[in-house]
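Practice problem 4.
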């Protein structure tokens, strides 16, 4: 998959999407009220839209893929970069035409932009009826009642406890094979460039038993891969004592469930259920997590491990709490324990406040050292209210930011091709996710390392594991053939 950020192509082979729109699917139950949701931003938002759909399903709503027939339209929004917010504002003005045609249409803004702007959004965007932050979705039925009496509704309360762990998400846009499971919410890190701690609130971990149950239910329904989601999964921590003493005995002699324990619990659901996770923060990943990944074949050998920059002074300004040497030592540890075959990807920001040309080159040299399989690459976009906005000047001119970003992207493209080329002639087990984007006679699946392989369908179908041999590669795809055994 490719996405466009600004006017620059971004290589994006994994499932995270930053400015991609995801739309609710048709259910078409006649007579029911219809909900249409567009989700922007990260996987957490996509996962939250599934929670929102579930909450409203209980109120008699069904989802639709057509805004024209919707009674309620929600935009689940992102604030991570300025462009993410501009996209939503442009979309709101487009949606105005539907509201003109159908003045009864309720328009709600959900997610991070709702949380950041609160009731100001109602003043700025007149067509919006309802503004709700990420921790207040249980209030949606009441808020919709309020709106039906002609009032506007706002709830941007951030919670220290809410994890929605009792809500079974309605799977939207599902391929029936892969699904996301949120394991925590919020973020307690204060990376100086980042708006997330302000829009998502304090970090909290979800009951591990509800996570395992959700994974088991998905497996029973035929799903074969789950991705455990959190802003910083390595700091997952759940204490039985704090949450529910009666459950203590169920956790074999551990009082606290950490991320390595949780990974193991989910891995044990079935060897046929693949488990992925995102995102790992370099400061928190432990050897325990790496050894657990090694122990279970179904724990996928792929770590999204955002560096953000390869220069220690910039990392300090970013408040990432590690330096270049620490980051490199963690990369070495991953390679030592899991081998060079484990795929590693990163996020990189070009042109952060005060970044010199030399410091930018350190990012390039870090990329060369690690040889990332993929990266998500951005130029710095100052966000109101963040530490960086208060402390540092956004002093790198846009054309310099873009030029540096282009250098980062070009290097990543070379690295991705080189990493992919090493797979030629080798055989990999892939989980089939469906037809390839180009043709119905071809299927596509992923390797454990999250590489997409495309091959002739033969008798194979979605949801199966199949071995494929790689014949050729592009930047983002392995061109393969199924090996029938
Ligand atoms: N929790 C994850 C990242 C979440 S945001 C982590 O810690 O890695 C996804 C990515 O967006 C970040 O990793 C960062 O690279 C990018 N990002 C965040 N704020 C940004 C900003 N103000 N400008 C440009 N990119 C930003
Ligand atoms: Fe943002 Fe840092 Fe938290 Fe990631 S870890 S969400 S970059 S504050
Ligand atoms: Fe965007 Fe919020 Fe995710 S700001 S990246 S939708 S946590």
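Answer key:
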């Amino acid at each position: 998959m490719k996405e466009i950020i600004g006017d620059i192509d971004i290589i994006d082979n994994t499932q995270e999407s930053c400015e991609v729109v995801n739309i609710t699917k048709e259910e078409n139950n006649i007579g029911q009220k219809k909900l249409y949701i567009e989700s922007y931003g990260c996987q957490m938002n996509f996962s939250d839209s599934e929670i929102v759909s579930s909450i409203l399903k209980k109120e008699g709503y069904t989802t639709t893929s057509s805004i024209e027939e919707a009674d309620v339209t929600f935009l689940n929004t992102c604030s991570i970069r300025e462009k993410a917010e501009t996209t939503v504002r442009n979309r709101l003005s487009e949606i105005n035409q539907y509201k003109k045609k159908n003045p009864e249409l309720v328009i709600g803004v959900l997610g991070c932009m709702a949380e950041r702007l609160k009731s100001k959004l109602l003043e700025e965007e007149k067509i919006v009826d309802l503004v709700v932050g990420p921790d207040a979705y249980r209030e949606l039925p009441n808020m919709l009642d309020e709106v039906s009496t002609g009032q506007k509704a706002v709830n941007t309360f951030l919670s220290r406890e809410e994890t929605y762990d009792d809500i079974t998400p309605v799977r939207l846009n599902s391929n029936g094979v892969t699904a996301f499971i949120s394991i925590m919410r919020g973020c307690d890190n204060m990376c100086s460039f980042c708006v997330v701690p302000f829009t998502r609130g304090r970090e909290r971990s979800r009951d591990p038993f509800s996570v395992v149950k959700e994974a088991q239910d998905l497996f029973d329904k035929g799903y074969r891969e789950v991705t455990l989601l959190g802003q910083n999964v390595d700091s997952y921590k759940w204490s039985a004592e704090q949450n529910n003493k009666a459950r203590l005995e169920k956790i074999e002699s551990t009082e606290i469930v950490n991320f390595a324990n949780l990974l193991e619990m989910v891995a044990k659901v079935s060897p046929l259920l693949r488990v992925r996770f995102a995102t790992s923060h370099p400061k928190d990943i432990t050897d325990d997590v790496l050894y657990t990944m090694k122990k279970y074949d179904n724990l996928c050998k792929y770590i999204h491990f955002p560096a953000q920059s390869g220069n220690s002074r910039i990392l300090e300004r970013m408040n990432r709490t590690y330096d270049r040497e620490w980051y490199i030592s963690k990369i070495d540890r991953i390679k030592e324990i899991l081998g060079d075959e484990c795929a590693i990807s990163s996020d990189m920001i070009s042109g952060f406040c005060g970044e010199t040309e030399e410091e930018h080159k350190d990012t390039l040299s870090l990329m060369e050292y690690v040889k990332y399989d993929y990266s998500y690459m951005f130029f710095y976009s100052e966000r109101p209210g963040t530490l960086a906005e208060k402390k540092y000047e956004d002093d790198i001119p846009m054309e310099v930011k873009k030029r540096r970003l282009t250098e980062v992207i070009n290097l990543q493209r070379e690295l991705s091709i080189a990493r992919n080329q090493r797979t030629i002639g080798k055989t990999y087990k892939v989980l089939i996710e469906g037809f390839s984007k180009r043709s119905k006679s071809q299927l596509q699946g992923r390797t454990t390392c999250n590489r997409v392989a495309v091959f002739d369908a033969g008798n194979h179908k979605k949801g199966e594991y199949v071995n494929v041999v790689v014949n050729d590669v592009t930047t983002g795809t392995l061109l393969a053939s199924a090996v029938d055994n």
